[in-house]
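Q: I'm building a small set of examples for a reading group on sequence design. Run inverse folding on the following structure and report the sequence directly after it, with nothing in between.
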């Protein structure tokens, strides 16, 4: 009976991320497409996928607007208002910080490091902070250990002497760690 439960749990762990991803993508498509379908069907201008096309155009327009000084100032103003709202501001701030950590101009997950701990054990993680006087002790750095096969992880403060930078791209590092070491890096 335990073997059957283990096999079932393993199947659930394999299928759950795929099913959740497909479900979120499908629901997002339905919502976006549904917003534009009603009035446009009546006008005879609707076709399936128009909502997705409009969403892509809106995202591109927002990026274009944010690329210019005045647009960036307007977006910054509305962002500061949103950040002041209780609960929503906190949620938005965490999502914004996480998303910006993947940008090329931010530090974020940019530096993969090998952490050597006593006993010969080594961990791979991302150096996320090396200079915060509030949270880090003298000669400490913050390293984020991502868990394999999922996007959870642990933030660990370790002595600076324990870390060694690894010269790979962030994309390769994420693939290697998320795949539990099954991804083969480029040589």
């Amino acid at each position: 009976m335990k073997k059957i439960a283990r096999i079932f749990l393993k199947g659930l762990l394999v299928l759950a991320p795929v099913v959740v991803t497909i479900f979120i993508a499908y629901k997002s498509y339905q919502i976006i497409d549904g917003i534009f379908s009603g009035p446009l069907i009546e006008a005879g201008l609707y076709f399936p996928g128009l909502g997705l096309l409009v969403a892509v155009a809106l995202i591109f327009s927002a990026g274009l607007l944010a690329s210019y000084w005045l647009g960036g100032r307007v977006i910054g103003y509305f962002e500061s208002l949103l950040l002041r709202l209780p609960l929503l501001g906190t949620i938005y701030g965490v999502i914004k910080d996480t998303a910006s950590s993947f940008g090329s101009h931010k530090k974020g997950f940019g530096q993969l490091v090998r952490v050597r701990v006593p006993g010969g054990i080594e961990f791979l993680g991302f150096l996320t902070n090396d200079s915060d006087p509030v949270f880090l002790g003298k000669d400490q750095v913050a390293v984020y250990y991502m868990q394999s096969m999922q996007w959870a992880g642990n933030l660990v403060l370790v002595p600076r002497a324990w870390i060694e930078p690894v010269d790979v791209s962030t994309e390769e590092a994420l693939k290697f760690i998320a795949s539990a070491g099954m991804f083969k890096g480029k040589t």
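Residues 43 and 172 are 48 Å apart (CA to CA).
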